């Protein structure tokens, strides 16, 4: 771990590259309180962050957001117009917002680079993102993926998974939380910090021990089994200690998750008291380095692969045209080829070819997604666009 005098995240060897911290956690885990605490911490360090709220249903946010989804999408109106329940309303609001991601990235890029016209304005080093408590709506939705991938393609991005420590003190609730974290890690493919919150109520050292010492978890598991913490009446021979199924499942899971634990940073904080925040930012710095070292090359590789696929698709189309022309044996093909080259876009986007391959399918999928988003926002575009334009205007002032 770095010392407390270490440079702030985003400054270590990369003075102009900020770090995006996306806070994810179950409802009531203390996400919003945590966001408020880290926001205040950075303000105290005279390094104010750029704050984005992606929770359209939050009634009261105790911190000011630079970009707030509620300014561009009216969650209640979305529920009414589309006849949706609360989760559907959040999902549709995120979908509407995701159509504006380019504008959001434009603003972020502007605020993270020095402004020649206003040299006194310091570029920001941290982007803090608050997300809805309905984790699955954000992490497992197409719009959540678009928002996260877009962010990660522009800035080192770290997930902070907030855990309610007092509610994770039994081996079964702890394991449920770890499995959830594991699924988020594999879905987002971004470096993750486990933030054990509410350390003022329950010291999270037990969790750190369970993650590093297999025997310690086994001992706790036996204790939970002995006091029938898993419930279940079917354990005849066990005399009321359950069937043993839960114990053996948790035992197996703890072995499986050993490797997963190695990829995580773990910090204990109290968002209420403000303890552990320095340690959290040290972990952010570590994970940002990890992002640059391990994730960024992978992202760039994928981007290059996509570009290469597109190039191959174009070449294939061109090759087909050339073959078609030479088979026709028409000596006037050369001037026609010049015409085709000039009309390059039309040629590349020809979609009614007989042997469309996976690459073209990919492109069409993307276009289809775009079209679906446009269709989804069409009836609401006036409201969303007008409001978004208003907040973009206030942001740029
Ligand atoms: N004791 C203690 N309470 C905390 C801490 N952090 C948050 N809380 C309390 O936990 C409750 C939930 O906190 P929030 O910050 O609203 O949680 P959230 O995850 O944003 O909840 P949603 O908005 O429903 O997603 C509140 O009553 C907070 O005061 C902490 O570190 N210690």
UniProtKB/TrEMBL annotation:
InterPro entries attached to this UniProt entry: Gpn, Gpn1/Npa3/XAB1, P-loop_NTPase
Region (Disordered): 295-381
Broad EC category: hydrolase
Keywords: Cytoplasm, GTP-binding, Hydrolase, Nucleotide-binding, Phosphoprotein
UniProt-listed SUPFAM superfamilies: P-loop containing nucleoside triphosphate hydrolases
UniProt-annotated location(s): Cytoplasm; Nucleus
Gene Ontology cellular-component terms listed: cytoplasm; nucleus
CDD domains attached to this UniProt entry: GPN1
Recorded family membership: Belongs to the GPN-loop GTPase family.
Functional note: Small GTPase required for proper nuclear import of RNA polymerase II (RNAPII). May act at an RNAP assembly step prior to nuclear import.
Quaternary assembly: Binds to RNA polymerase II.
Protein name: GPN-loop GTPase
């Amino acid at each position: 771990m770095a010392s407390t005098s270490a440079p702030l995240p985003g400054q270590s060897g990369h003075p102009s590259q900020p770090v995006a911290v996306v806070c994810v956690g179950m409802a009531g885990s203390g996400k919003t309180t945590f966001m408020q605490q880290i926001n205040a911490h950075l303000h105290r360090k005279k390094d104010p962050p750029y704050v984005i709220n992606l929770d359209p249903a939050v009634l009261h946010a105790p911190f000011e957001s630079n970009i707030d989804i509620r300014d561009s999408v009216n969650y209640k109106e979305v529920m009414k117009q589309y006849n949706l329940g609360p989760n559907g309303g959040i999902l549709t609001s995120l979908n509407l917002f995701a159509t504006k991601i380019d504008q959001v990235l434009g603003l972020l890029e502007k605020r993270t680079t020095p402004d020649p016209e206003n040299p006194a304005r310091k570029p920001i080093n941290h982007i803090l993102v608050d997300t809805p408590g309905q984790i699955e709506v954000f992490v497992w939705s197409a719009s959540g993926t678009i928002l996260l991938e877009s962010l990660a393609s522009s800035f080192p991005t770290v997930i902070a998974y907030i855990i309610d420590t007092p509610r994770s003190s039994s081996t079964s609730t702890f394991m449920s939380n770890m499995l959830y974290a594991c699924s988020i890690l594999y879905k987002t493919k971004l470096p993750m910090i486990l933030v054990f919150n509410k350390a003022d109520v329950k010291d999270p050292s037990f969790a750190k021990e369970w993650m590093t010492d297999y025997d310690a978890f086994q001992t706790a598991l036996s204790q939970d089994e002995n006091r029938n913490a898993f419930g279940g009446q079917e354990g005849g021979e066990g005399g009321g200690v359950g069937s043993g199924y839960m114990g053996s499942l948790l035992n197996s899971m703890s072995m499986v998750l050993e490797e997963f634990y190695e990829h995580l940073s773990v910090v204990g904080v109290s968002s209420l008291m403000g303890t552990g925040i320095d340690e959290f930012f040290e972990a952010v710095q570590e994970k940002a380095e990890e992002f640059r070292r391990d994730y960024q090359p992978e992202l760039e590789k994928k981007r290059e692969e996509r570009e290469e696929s597109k190039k191959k698709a174009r070449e294939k189309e061109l090759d087909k045209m050339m073959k078609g022309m030479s088979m026709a044996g028409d000596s006037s093909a050369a001037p026609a080829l010049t015409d085709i080259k000039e009309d390059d876009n039309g040629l590349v986007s020809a979609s009614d070819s007989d042997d469309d391959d996976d690459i073209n399918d990919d492109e069409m999928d993307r276009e289809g997604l775009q079209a679906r988003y446009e269709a989804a926002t069409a009836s609401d575009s006036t409201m969303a666009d007008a409001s978004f334009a208003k907040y973009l205007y206030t942001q740029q002032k």
